[in-house]
Amino acid sequence: MVCLGNICRSPLAEGIMRQKVTERGLNWEVDSAGTGFWHIGEPPDSRSIQTARKYGLDITTQRARQISAQDLARFDLILTMDESNYRDVLRLAKPQHQEDKVAMILDYAHPGKNLSVPDPYWDDDGFDQIYQMLTEACERVIDAHSQG
Ligand code: 4NP
């Protein structure tokens, strides 16, 4: 799960996906990172922590890190929150094999629409909406990549 700062959107996405993967008994490794370096080492934004807590998720132990080329080799699927993240991650990817691992997460819920998860950093009200978007998208991701 990749966003810009790895403190607002992708920590929520990681928490939601981690819970769904556990519920479904899937042996998936779930992680998140940011394309930027500004918040490395920081816990998630307090508004993401609060939103997660409201829905029974504890994301407080996550720490922000920056995505690296090794992540493209290591993970099978790299899901970005918006188009800017998508372009930045593609720059790290080796053609063609690694490029094919990269997708915008909302494509799973709304194919062909090119929708982005809005950056909520400057908008206190956006976090609940983002939680709902990511919950639906994570369901679709699991549906697409798991058997039954
Ligand atoms: P995120 O949100 O990419 O969802 O973690 C942001 C966090 C920090 C900044 C921008 C977006 N920032 O400009 O520091």
Written description of the protein model:
With 148 residues, this protein is mainly α. It has a single domain, classed as Rossmann fold (3-Layer(aba) Sandwich), CATH 3.40.50.2300. Helices cover 41% and strands 7% of the residues. The chain has five helices and four strands; from the N terminus they run βαβααβαβα. The strands form two sheets. The chain has a two-stranded parallel sheet. Strands 3-4 form a two-stranded parallel ribbon. Strand 1, helix 1 and strand 2 (33-34) form a beta-alpha-beta unit. The radius of gyration is 14 Å and the shape is globular. The mean pLDDT is 97. Bound molecules: 4-nitrophenyl phosphate. Residues 3-9, 34, 38, 119, 121 line the site of 4-nitrophenyl phosphate (4NP).
Any descriptors?
binds 4-nitrophenyl phosphate; 148 residues; mainly alpha; Rossmann fold; globular
Radius of gyration: 14 Å
What is bound: which ligands? Answer: 4-nitrophenyl phosphate
Number of domains: 1
Task: Quote the distance from N terminus to C terminus.
Answer: 23 Å
Biggest sheet layout: 2 strands, parallel
Shape estimate? globular
Structural category: mainly alpha
Q: Total helix count?
A: 5
- Stated plainly, the CATH topology is called Rossmann fold
Strand proportion, as a percent range, falls in: 5-15%
> What is the correct CATH architecture?
3-Layer(aba) Sandwich
Mean pLDDT: 97
Along the chain, the helix and strand elements come as EHEHHEHEH
Helix content: 40-55%
Any low-confidence stretches, pLDDT <50, length ≥5?
none
- In which order are the strands of the major sheet placed? 1-2
Determine the CATH superfamily: Response regulator
